[in-house]
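FORM 7B - TANDEM STRUCTURE REPORT

SECTION 1: FIRST PROTEIN
SEQUENCE AND TOKENS:
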Amino acid sequence: MDSIRMLVLYQGRTLETHPGYHDGFQRLQAEGVLADYRAIPYFGIALEHGWPALWEEAVRQIREYDINVVFIHFFHDNNTPDPSAGLKMMLACPSRPMLFTSLGDPFGIWLNRVPECYKIASGMSDINFMTGMGKIARRLAAQGTKNLVFMPNGVCHVRFSAPLERTGYAPEFDIVFIGSRMRSRWLVGSASWYGFWRDRLVAKLTRRFGSRFGLFGKGWKGQPCWQGFVNYDEQHLALRRAKVQIGGYPNCLNDYYTSDRVFIALASGIPLVDYAIPGVECLFENGRDWRLGRNFGEMLKHVDSLLELPDEKRLDIGGRVRREILASHTQYHRCKQMIEIVQDYRNQKLAGKIPPPPALPFLRFPLSPASGKCAAIVNWKG
């Protein structure tokens, strides 16, 4: 079977926007998994020269390098125009490339819906990787998107691999929360609900811990525990100023959804208490790898139990989880897992067979439909 010669269209203005994915695919090429790897940051061309110029450049590279697989990464900006013509041009190239996409943000059903550009691209793709499933996957399937496969985020190993120096560890906070204050123009709906509960979380942590609570993020100016905004790639510096970290209330309850926040947090070496999104126990074990609560009271009990431990014990717990994350849940691992699925699918198709649903090695146990919940693979057509 042909080896994969892949072109990735990245969400971003430069390749430095997603260094973990770029490094991951480069490593796969060095390992011989990919015969060739080319990359285009699609906003970098489209916003400066126009979307037609982007598709022309993609087609040029597909033809020049005989590309047989195209990956459109996190293709879900609401300002992106209809990509149909560009996608058809790519798919019509002599190499007849296979197309796959990924959905990375926490979109909803009624508000903050999946942008049309992704609906179009995913409808024309062979495989679509999702960072959350549940209602959003079922809605896409009902609209005609096939082969929806759960592929969680991973930690960017380029940014977040630096070890925690235990000899200099001197936490100034009992607990830290990193997260922006969420506001929505809609008085009803999920975004408003998430913002309300996040406000309550911060208020309760402030009353409970006072100056021993470190609050980081946008929108909290005036809050007594606010430590300012923290840059994306400096999150570990903030987290390592505390004994325990709390993830708080997320901005999405799609089954299995974690964003990359969870993976960054777990790779810090500081024990994590988080809100229990439906299904996330398929990724990590509650009570061992992290501690999940269904409400503030449950989360606070977990925080208190961790704070009762000596620093060395907490660092042992956090250090073990950190090592496991970097060994199995980086963006390099996600690149490899996607390529393995794509390669198997393509080989089956070239052999005239119907590809079976893929195995998902990052799952702790199989996911199957139950009580109305969706599985990790939805609308698989082969």
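SECTION 2: SECOND PROTEIN
SEQUENCE AND TOKENS:
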Amino acid sequence: MEDYIDALLLYLDEQRSSVMSSEYVSCLAREEAAAEALCRTLTEEQHRLFHSYDNARSATASAAEDEYARAAFLLAKEIFS
């Protein structure tokens, strides 16, 4: 049952940049600018720690996004079945 959901999630991920709102793009640009500004002030050790944190945060956000999308697909399947 999850194979088709994985295929849908992969498709959505590939299409992500074409469907993002200008608000999202604007928020993303501000986030990236803030991270770059912060990184310019960090020591080498702090920089390493920040990247470790950022990688872990990104993995968590990605997993949460996938689970949310998976739940939406399963709900739609239940509603329309």
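SECTION 3: OBSERVATIONS ON SECOND PROTEIN
The chain has three helices and no strands.
The longest helix spans residues 44-80.

SECTION 4: SIGNATURE
Preparer initials: ____
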